[in-house]
Specification:
By secondary structure, the protein is mainly alpha-helical. 48% of the residues lie in helices and 9% in strands.
Length: 163
């Protein structure tokens, strides 16, 4: 209907066709022989009404174009944000993979190093309170030793407390 109001005055005929099924159609040429036909009168349009309708159509089109531009901009921003998030996730996965690879290489290097390393400690360990005499290096030489030292007259076992 808006198009009829907007379209300029034309000397064209419009026909209303009513089919035998009851379907109504409007067309610019006469109806077929099996349909009932009526000629629709077209009133001439007032130029002021035409100008007002064109103005409303232009406003509507501008609003629609503005909404479309806003929607497209929002979609573009959303795509950019999604690409940024995907890039950050890819960098995180890459960094984690590199970290895992570095740890695996470190473990492998330590295993190779341990394979060829000599034992720094003997395979057996003495208990904390050893019965063997030793020299306490933290004490000065002029002080008496903590444990009796072995001499020709006695053995170290006879001078130490028994368990």
């Amino acid at each position: 209907m808006l198009l009829i109001a907007i379209s300029p005055s034309v000397d064209a005929d419009v026909f209303k066709c009513i089919a035998s099924s009851g379907k109504i159609t409007y067309q610019g040429r006469p109806c077929s022989s099996d349909a009932q036909q009526e000629k629709v009168p077209i009133e001439p349009t007032d130029p002021r009404q035409l100008a007002e309708a064109e103005r409303r159509l232009a406003i509507w089109q501008m609003e629609r174009d503005k909404q479309k531009a806003e929607r497209l901009e929002a979609e573009r921003m959303q795509r950019q944000e999604q690409h940024r998030i995907e890039a950050v996730e890819a960098l995180k996965r890459s960094a984690e993979a590199q970290r895992q690879q570095a740890l695996a290489e470190l473990r492998q290097a330590e295993a190779l190093e341990n394979q060829y390393r000599m034992q720094a400690y003997p395979l057996y360990y003495l208990p904390y309170q050893s019965r063997l005499p030793y020299r306490d290096r933290s004490r000065s030489i002029d002080k008496a030793p903590r444990w009796p030292m072995r001499d020709s007259k006695s053995t170290w076992m006879t001078n130490s407390p028994r368990r």
